[in-house]
Write a structure and sequence with these properties.
Blueprint lengths: L9 H9 L8 H11 L4 E4 L4 E3 H17 L7 E4 L5 H13 L2 E4 L6 H10 L4 E5 L1 E2 L2 E2 H11 L5 E5 L6 E2 H4 L15 E6 L9 E5 H14 L7 E4 L6 H5 L2 H8 L2 E4 L5 H11 L3 E4 L1 H10 L12 E5 L5 H11 L2 E8 L2 E5 L6 H6 L3 E2 L5 E5 L12 E6 L11 H7 L6 E9 L5 E6 L3 E4 L2 E4 H9 L4 E11 L3 E10 L6 H10 L10 E4 L13 H12 L4
Parallel strand pairs: 1-13, 3-4, 3-5, 5-8, 8-9, 12-13, 14-15, 15-16, 26-27
Antiparallel strand pairs: 1-2, 6-7, 10-11, 16-17, 17-18, 19-20, 20-21, 21-22, 23-24, 25-26
The structure holds 5'-O-[(R)-(benzoyloxy)(hydroxy)phosphoryl]adenosine (OOB).
5'-O-[(R)-(benzoyloxy)(hydroxy)phosphoryl]adenosine binds next to helix 9, strand 16, strand 21 and strand 22.
Length: 538
């Protein structure tokens, strides 16, 4: 078993198997099956080309055989940092086939994040594009390789320079049979994090396949579905809710867009007759605003999913009339629990709630600060346990004690109310995190970087409201004596290799921080201060 993985209690595992939730199917086998069933149907289209199910399976198998030749084996970790391109899908399925674990990072991650993922997961390989979005990933790879010499292979899609080219990895040698089981960990996903750095989330084939199967049902995905991905494809949401894995599970077609801009995405919708697309709220708002100004025919769209952050009821109301398709809200988390509004739910539910759990075996508790359960309708901390919610983060025993209750409920950090029909409404958050339009920022991680600046005595990062992003981040800073300009602080954080989305949007210099009666920095007060400053002055 993977070291650092918290196994499921034997009785629970037995129960979920008995109930038919866990079927022992791995993602490698799933692609194998679909490649027979839908052999000549197009599986994935990207900006350059398209491949059928049979081709995808064949290429994934050849890539897998090549990885084996490099010495990559069951249980090894491989950091994958690729944009929305076909090689991403090939690489991930190749890893599933040999039981090696992709560690899913995002194209926006930089040295700080990537080096930590490589080091912490003791990765053997790192897969990158040559360049993407004006950034050269080979430069980053060189820095990571210097810092983490145990990283053996760097595989590059495109011009590899001194590294190994993706195309060179494919091998015609037969794949060495590996016994990958449903109960094995399939990959490590990233958590949004609230304390320090992102935690890694181990998900097994069994439980993740179950989320895919249920998502396919809830979102009514079929082999007629044409699924557009404009969000970073490695994020848990476009991967599994219902995501590219759901599209493949159902035999549908995936269209990968390199960016979420309407200039790129709308023509793709028109050309490929896209039926379904997942968005985060700021993108949904942008698309709503831009739609009337554009001429593309988007009439093929049947469903727009919106999730990752709270979608306001006002914006939710506009989706159907503007796009002439259904809205489906999704409230999910990489740790497990996923809620959807259903396509046949009344408008009231679709607009005002974030859906209900996918599985009848999902357990939900709404509790007060002392873990006492609250009556229906009262907002409180959401705790959850179930057949696809993790039992613990990877190699994080101390954090796990705080993040899970003794009886195995995950503390989501979300403040939620549940109505009588079991639909959840997200009312707020009780975790030290900023949700910047779906991208999660752990306040403490950014604070630690600010504290490394010699002029900074103390720092506290909080969310501030933003009409477009929902939230942006604001750093309150106490300087020793000399104040440093915002531009310089941003550059300082960028130079430390922090992903751009984590760099605070605003900096406020203060003499001291407001304190709670327990002597902790009162982030609530700080949020109030910045909200007051944001109010237009009369
Ligand atoms: C998704 O996953 P993560 O792991 O990036 O973030 C999970 C957190 C939740 O705990 C909650 O705080 C927030 O993101 N969230 C929402 C939300 N959906 C997620 N807050 C309010 N309304 C929503 N609809 O973000 C994710 C994973 C799978 C599917 C969809 C989203």
């Amino acid at each position: 078993m993977l070291e650092g993985f918290t196994p499921w209690p034997a009785d629970k595992a037995e129960y979920y198997r008995q109930k038919g939730c866990w079927e022992g199917l791995t993602f490698g086998q799933m692609l194998e099956d679909r490649s027979k069933q839908y052999a000549n149907d197009i599986a994935v289209i990207d900006y350059q080309s398209s491949i059928t199910y049979a081709e995808l399976n064949e290429r994934a198998t050849k890539f897998a055989a090549g990885l084996q030749k490099l010495g990559i084996d069951k249980g090894d970790r491989i950091v994958v940092q690729l944009p929305n391109i076909i090689p991403y899908v090939e690489a991930v399925f190749a890893l599933f086939k040999i039981g090696a674990l992709p560690v899913f990072s995002l194209p926006s991650h930089r040295f700080n994040e990537i080096n930590y993922f490589c080091e912490f997961s003791e990765a053997d390989a790192y897969i990158i594009p040559d360049r993407f979005g004006g950034f050269d990933y080979r430069t980053l790879a060189r820095q990571v390789k210097d810092a983490t010499p145990s990283l053996e292979h760097i595989i590059v899609v495109g011009e590899a320079e001194e590294f190994l080219s993706f195309n060179q990895v494919y091998s015609d040698e037969p794949l060495r049979e590996i016994n990958v089981q449903g109960s094995d960990v399939a990959f490590l996903q990233l958590s949004g994090g609230s304390t320090g750095r992102s935690k890694l989330i181990p998900r097994t084939h069994d439980e993740y396949m179950y989320t895919i199967k249920l998502s396919v049902e809830c979102c009514e995905v079929t082999n007629q579905t044409i699924f557009l991905v404009v969000l970073p494809v490695a994020h848990n949401y476009p991967m599994s809710s219902p995501g590219i894995l759901g599209a493949i599970y159902a035999g549908g077609k995936i269209v990968l867009s390199l960016t979420p801009s309407p200039e790129e995405a709308f023509p793709l919708i028109e050309k490929h007759r896209v039926t379904m697309v997942p968005l985060v709220p700021p993108l949904a708002l942008h698309w709503l605003d831009v739609k009337p100004l554009r001429t593309e025919d988007l009439s093929s769209l049947e469903v727009i999913l919106v999730g990752g952050a709270k979608f306001s009821a006002e914006a939710a109301k506009r989706i159907e009339p503007v796009f002439e398709c259904k809205l489906q809200q999704v409230f999910g988390m990489a740790e497990g629990l996923v809620n959807y509004t259903r396509l046949d739910d009344p408008e009231e539910i679709i607009i005002h709630t974030q859906g209900r759990p996918m599985s009848p075996y999902d357990e939900i508790k709404i509790v007060d600060n002392e873990d006492n359960e609250l009556p229906a309708g009262v907002a409180g901390h959401l705790l959850t346990r179930g057949p696809y919610t993790i039992q613990g983060y990877y190699k994080a025993p101390e954090h796990n004690i705080k993040a899970f209750t003794k009886d195995g409920f995950y503390r989501t950090g979300d403040i939620v109310s549940v109505n009588e029909q079991g639909y959840l409404t997200v009312e707020g958050r009780d975790k030290d995190q900023i949700n910047r339009g779906g991208e999660k920022i752990a306040a403490e991680e950014v604070e630690n970087h600010l504290l490394a600046h010699p002029a900074i005595h103390d720092a506290a990062v909080v969310a501030m409201s933003d009409p477009y992003m929902g939230e942006k981040s604001c750093a309150f800073v106490i300087f020793h004596d000399e104040q440093i300009a915002k531009r310089k602080l941003k550059k300082f954080l960028g130079d430390r290799g922090l992903a751009t989305y984590k760099i605070p949007d605003e900096f406020v210099s203060v003499e001291k921080f407001p304190m709670t009666h327990l002597g902790k920095v009162s982030k609530k007060e700080l949020r109030k201060i910045i909200e007051e400053q944001l109010q237009p002055t009369e």
